[in-house]
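Researcher: Last one for today. Full complex below.
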Amino acid sequence: MIYLDNAATTKVSEEVFESMKPYFCEQYANPSAIYSFAGKSMKAVDEARKNIADLIGAKPNEIYFTAGGSESDNWAIKAAAELYNTKGKHIITSTIEHHAVLHTCQYLEKQGYEVTYVNVDEYGVIKLDELEAAIRPDTILITIMAANNEIGTIQPLKEIGGLAKKNGILFHTDAVQAYGHIPLNVDELGIDMLSASGHKFHGPKGIGFLYIRKGVRIGSFVHGGAQERSRRAGTHNTPGIVGIGTAAALAADGLQARMEKETALRDYLIKRVLTEISYTRLNGHETDRLPNNANFCFRFIEGESLLILLDQQGICASSGSACTSGSLDPSHVLLAIGLPHEIAHGSLRLTLSEETTREDIDFTVDAIKKIVERLRSMSPLYEDFIKQNQKEEA
Amino acid sequence: MYSEKVMDHFNNPRNVGEIENPSGVGTVGNAKCGDIMRIYLDIDDNGIIQEAKFKTFGCGAAVATSSMATELVKGKTVQQALEVTNKAVMEALDGLPPVKVHCSLLAEEAIHAALWDYAEKNNIKIEGLEKPVDDIEEKMEEEY
Ligand SMILES: Cc1ncc(COP(=O)(O)O)c(C=O)c1O
Ligand code: FES
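Model: Here's the assembly. Have a good evening.
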C-alpha cells in the first residue's frame, strides 16, 4: 500500500505509540488526583504541554488540551464572539477555511453575528487588501487558516497578524495542517489563538489543543471540572496528551531537514505529473505550499473514478470532486480559486509523509498516467475536445 | 461502498466507445454534480438495437450504470428499451448507495435521448417516449 492521504490523517509513529503505552494499564491515574500515584501522570501531561508550546514559541500555560482540531476551532471562534459581543459582532474569515471554521461562522451568523468571507487569489492566497478593507470598528475576530488542507497554500500569517494587531482585533488561526509541518512562531506572526490536532502530525486521533495567548480572556467551551486551569473541563486524556506531546517533540526535531526532503519529493512529483500528463494543472501556490501537499486537476475526468482505480493499485489518495463529496457539491476551496465545476471534478490530492519514497512516487505517477488515459478514453468531454481540435486543424 | 456487480462493470465496462453514423445518439448532463453521459445506438430496419456504446464523465456508479444500461438494451426492440429504467439498471447492479441514485437516472435519460434522436432522424414517433431533458436535475426534482 502507498499511503498518500496524510492530510486526512497520519500514521501514529512508533515512538509516539511507545510513549503512550504506559498510560493505559500502568500509569492510569487521573492526573488531577492528590496521591503520589497520580504524580507521574501529571508530570507527563506537563511535559507534553511544554513540548507542544516550544514548537510555536509559546508558554506551556498558554496551551489547552482539547479533543482535536474541530473543538479547538469551535472554542476559539464561539468564545471570542461571546467575549466581545458588546464591542461588536463582526468576524472576518476566508472562503477556503475548513468546515470546522466555516460552519462555526455560519452558526454564529444565525445568532446575529456578521461574517465577511475574504476571497483568495487563483493560488489560494488570501487577498490582503480585501482583508484590510473588511476591517470595521465592530470587527472582533479574524480567523484565517495557516495552511489549506486541500491545496496546501500557506497564508501570509505575519501580514494578517500585523493587520489584526494594528486594529486591535483578535487573530485566530487554524493551524491543523501546518503545526509540526512548517515553522510557526506565535509572537513573530502575531497569533492570539491557534488550533492544532494530534493526528495530523503522527500523533493520536481525538486529541488536539488550542493555544490562547496570555491575556486573551475567552471563556470556557466545555464546562465542568477544573482541568486546564478551569478553562476546559474533562478528565485529562493522559495517553493522548502524552502521544501528542511526543509527536510535537519529534516534529520539532529535524523540522528543517524533513521539510527539505519532503519539498524535494513533492516537487519531483509535481514536475513529473505536469510534464508527463497533458491537460493537467497544479492547484495551490507553487512555492508557498505545505511541503507534503500536491493537488492536481486532470481535465476531462472525474475524481471518484480516479480514486477507485488508484485504490486498486494500492494507492490511497483523495479528491475534491462533487461525486466524492456526499453533498454532490465540488470542493469549496477549488471553486474559491476560480475553477469551474467541470475542472474541479478531476481533482486529486496527494499528501506525502516522511516515509514516502521516490519509488512510491514513481509507482504512483506511472499509475496515474495509465488511469487518466483510460478515463479520458471513456470521457465524452475528451471526445468533444479532440474532435474540436481536429476541426480547427483541418 | 459499491456492490461487486458495480465494481465489475466499473472495472470492465462493457460497450465503451463510439459508433460511427449511429442511428441515434443522446448526451445528457447533470448539473447536480456536473457529470455527462453519452449513449450511441445502432438500430436496424426492424427496430432492434444491434449495438450500444457509451462514454461517461462521472463517478464509479455513473460508469457502471452506463455499462449495464447499454448491456440491457442490446438486442431489444425500441419499445423494450424503454423499459430499461433507472430502477431496472440499479436492480441489475444489485443496488446503488442512496447518494448515487441520480447517476442511474442519467443512464435512463441518455438512452431516452438517443432513442429520441433516432425517432427524429427517421421521422417516427415512439409510443411512450417523452422529449428528454438536457439536465436530469429537472427530472430529479419531479421524482424525489
Ligand atoms: C484545516 C483543518 N482544520 C480542522 C480540522 C479538524 O480537525 P479534527 O479532525 O482534529 O477535528 C482538519 C482535519 O481535517 C483540518 O484539516
Ligand atoms: S456521476 Fe457524480 S455522483 Fe455519480
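Chain B has six helices and three strands. The helical segments of chain B are 4-11, 60-73, 78-81, 86-92, 101-122, 136-143.
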